[in-house]
Amino acid sequence: MLTFQSVNLEKLSTLGPWYHSISWHHRNPALAAVFLLSILSLGGIYAPIAQLPLDPVLATPAQDEALYTHGILRMAAGEDWLTPHFLGRPLLVKPPLMQWLSASGLKVFGFHTWALRLPGILAAAAVMLIVYRCTGPVGWLLLCSLGLWRARAGLVMMDDLLTLWYVLAVALIAKDPKLAARLAAWCFGALVGLAVMTKWFAGVLPIALLLWTRPPLRRWIEAGVAFALVVTPWHLYQFLVNHDWFLAEYLGVELLGFAFSAPVQASSEGHTLYYFNRLLWLLPLAAPLILRRVQATWLVWCGVLLTAIFAYSYQNATYLVPLAPALLLSHRGPIHWGFAPLALFGLLGWPSGSAVGPIGNEFQGREVLHLDPDDQLRTTLLPGATVRYIFLTSHLPPNGALDFEQLGIAVHVAPFLAAPEAKVDAVLATDLAELRTLIEQSPQRDFLLPQNVWAALGMQSPHDVIPGIKIWLKSKNPQPGPRPNQFPLLSGPGFAK
């Protein structure tokens, strides 16, 4: 009679050399451990919203994280899921796939920072797992040590989710360049559609690989049908329901405006110098390629990414994020342990986040006017508050095809005091005298002002003056305002309990 042990040995022996060729780091327990370790290595899980630096040179805080978080909180609190909103207006800067996933995380797990960031966390960890599976422990270590990746991975931004769709789509082409399997064509089209639903026109970049591999026409059609099934419903809905805003912001500003004539850049560096200084951080990831063990598809994909980055007019260090795993995956097979010391390069010199005040409930039931959005829009996350921004300018320029003054979203001090409508989220003051008038005639409103502006005003305010990172002019008889945020306070590090 065969024993249990002999049966198992007999079964294993029938597998032949395939079983014995599986490396220890490719087995399921190791992969599960690496996935968990990848999550724990991410720097963005518990950081305050819009604080972590995204740029190794400028140390720019996480732009747009608070912007997207505001819309996600509104969705999770029961507002419109098809059309994201920011303050009192639609937010059609990008499709809402990432917002939908984050809002779902909040609905399932509660209003916690980690639940808000769950899609980015899981997407970043999944990319790291793929890199580990294809390039071994050294490839994983190089990616994990890279500040551009580690410091911002898991934030409420689209880069991690977009990178995951990219990696899956390119991996599919690398395995089946001609899309010989019908399912491959459908999956490729769906992945490109998901990428578009994540970050608009940046999602179409994998299609460039089809121009290189040249699959049969029928596979192009099948991939196109799958793509259309993913992207058409939401885009058609917005075209029909929010027609003017969709054409002006989604197409006019985001597609045509920023692609060809960027707004004011964060850096005065020229395009080439800007990206050259940041590409230096990726050199350790490209170093293994000197062994000439190259995956051609992934190398072509790196070229596609670089071409798109340099062609796009707006400068942003996060555009380089998808390039990091692509460089590692361009190496064929496990990366030699001799390259492991290069991980030390990625650990050096990355800036830390600047201190910011916690977001709490102290503005519940109040109307808050904040001078300039220099907090990366974190004020908009105040629960129960009506939030507006003040701009010291005679005119707020149109946002591309959108003239916020014409739309009634931005108004000057006098008409605002006469009719403070709910749709107003920007108040324009031409000088300090108008700002002083606004404060004096708004005893029911709170104000947040930089310390130097408050000193320059030199006035006696009808408010209580509370010093801090910003001067808080606290109303003695507060009013809730016409458009209070209906979402609760997020819990987690960086937020008040």
Number of domains: 2
Radius of gyration: 25 Å
The gross shape turns out to be: globular
Order of helices and strands: HHHHEEHHHHHHHHHHHHHHEEEHEHEHEE
Q: Kindly state the percentage of residues in helix.
A: 40-55%
Major sheet strand order: 5-6-4-3-7-9-8
Pairing-aware structural class of the strands and helices? alpha/beta
Low-confidence stretches: 1-22
Strand content: 5-15%
Number of extended strands: 9
Main beta sheet, described? 7 strands, mixed
End-to-end distance: 65 Å
What value does the average pLDDT take?
88
> How many helices in DSSP terms?
21
Can you offer a commentary on this structure?
The structure is a single chain. The protein is of the alpha/beta class and 497 residues long. It has two domains: 306 residues, no CATH class; 108 residues, no CATH class. Helices cover 48% and strands 7% of the residues. It contains 21 helices and nine strands. The strands form two sheets. A seven-stranded mixed beta sheet has the order 5-6-4-3-7-9-8. Helix 9 packs antiparallel against helix 16. The N terminus is likely disordered.
Secondary structure: elements and pairs:
Blueprint: H1 4-14, H2 17-21, H3 28-41, H4 65-76, E1 85-86, E2 89-90, H5 97-109, H6 113-116, H7 118-145, H8 147-150, H9 159-175, H10 182-199, H11 207-213, H12 217-241, H13 243-260, H14 271-279, H15 283-286, H16 296-311, H17 323-329, H18 343-347, E3 367-371, E4 386-392, E5 410-412, H19 413-418, E6 426-429, H20 432-440, E7 446-449, H21 451-457, E8 464-466, E9 471-474
Parallel strand pairs: 3-4, 3-7, 4-6, 5-6
Antiparallel strand pairs: 1-2, 7-9, 8-9
Helix pairs in contact: 3-7, 4-5, 7-9, 7-17, 9-10, 9-16, 10-12, 12-13, 16-17
